Amino acid sequence: MRWRIVGRLEAGQSQVQICREFNLTPSVVCNLWKQFENTGSIERKPGQGRPRATTATEDRYLSVIARRNRGAAASQLSCDLYAFT
């Protein structure tokens, strides 16, 4: 869908028309166009977003102890994880 939007922008279609056609907000189309103009691509960079707080092993451990003790609160699970590591 992103490449179709960029293609229509290059063809001269207005951002407002594209927003209506794809049911998007104007900021989405504007940011996509800016990104394409600056980098020549619309792909997301790897590693964007907030860094993970737990590893995959810790996630598996948390799911196991949460299933064993369904009534445990998040704070108790956090304490158990801290004791485990």
TrEMBL record:
Q: Which organism is it from?
A: Araneus ventricosus
Q: Which SUPFAM superfamilies match?
A: Homeodomain-like (SSF46689)
Gene Ontology cellular component annotations, sorted alphabetically: nucleus
Return the protein name: Paired domain-containing protein
Chief location bin? nucleus
Q: Which subcellular locations apply to this protein?
A: Nucleus
The residue range of the signal peptide is none
